[in-house]
Amino acid sequence: ATMPPLLSAIATAGRHGVLIKSAVVMERLGQVDAVALDKTGTLTEGTPRVTDVCPLDHSGLTEEAMLTLAAAAEHPSEHPLARAVADAARKRGLELPAAWDFASTPGTGVTATVDGRTVAVGSPGRLREPHPDHPATALATRLEETGRTAVLVEVDGSAVGVLGIADGLREDATATVAALTTLTGTAPVLLTGDNPRAARLLAAEVGIADVRAGLLPQDKVTAVKELEGAGRKVLVVGDGVNDAPALAAAHTAVAMGRAGSDLALETADAVVVRDELATIPTAVSLSRRARRLVV
Length: 295
Ligand code: ADP
Ligand code: MG
Hints:
- This protein is α/β, with parallel strands linked by helices.
- It has two domains: about 5-45 and about 170-295, HAD superfamily/HAD-like (Rossmann fold, 3-Layer(aba) Sandwich), CATH 3.40.50.1000; about 50-165, 3-Layer(aba) Sandwich (Calcium-transporting ATPase, cytoplasmic domain N), CATH 3.40.1110.
- The chain has twelve helices and 13 strands.
- The protein has a seven-stranded mixed beta sheet with strand order 1-13-12-11-2-9-10, with helices on both faces. Strands 3-8-7-6-5-4 form a six-stranded antiparallel beta sheet.
- The longest helix has 16 residues, at about 280-295.
- It is elongated, with a radius of gyration of 20 Å.
- Keywords: ATP-binding, Cell membrane, Magnesium, Membrane, Metal-binding, Nucleotide-binding, Translocase, Transmembrane, Transmembrane helix.
- It is found in: Cell membrane.
């Protein structure tokens, strides 16, 4: 028998590097008329590196001491930023003490007990000491204005310093945004838990004007529902645990496979396995072609 068009499109999409989970998904992909993209790990490569280790003077901590505490607390986390912090410590040959009572909050950061102290590492806006006139805030803002993600380190509830983390734009990010804009008739929206300064810099570079930053996982859902409430069929692309609720709420959801979290991969309707963003507009085009053959 000749293969039905949707199944043969699934096979072709697979050869291009996108795993489509069902014929229904293959069909729905071609209906999307709006796109919401995550930033970290989706538009960026998802292999961030620590570029700055900045303990505050009053903390009495050396760079190494602060990095050791932060890396010990991040060690159990699978978040790309956590891996960056752990890698930075490993590169400096630092020995990490064990962490106890580890807890992570998607879109915020982690906490753990290290050497009897409570260490928190995460978003400067969401940890406990984000006073606008605190020296850590100025430091974080300065890093963010250069496109970096600033991560605050707190010990026993007070800020001790900031880490600057950089993640490169994917090579095909700009071309993919352009292709998706042509296919849907509107430019994609950027949804990120990261800071608005870094998010806007990166968005401008790839041709995105609509930037929603500082979002918690549930805020990403609200943004998607808002678009769908306005009658759009939204394609959501993400990689993190923080993206899972938005992926579940989307008309169609695609997860980035290589650095993606298990939860995102399981929740999404399709998975990019070749780790190229450009496979997504290809899959949308394949769906449209197959649907023309079906009807
Ligand atoms: P995005 O939506 O861009 O993929 P996330 O929602 O995963 O980003 O994270 C949003 C912000 O929360 C990060 O920019 C960082 O400030 C903070 N954060 C989340 N998880 C961690 C972590 N494990 N370590 C440090 N910071 C974190
Ligand atoms: Mg992400």
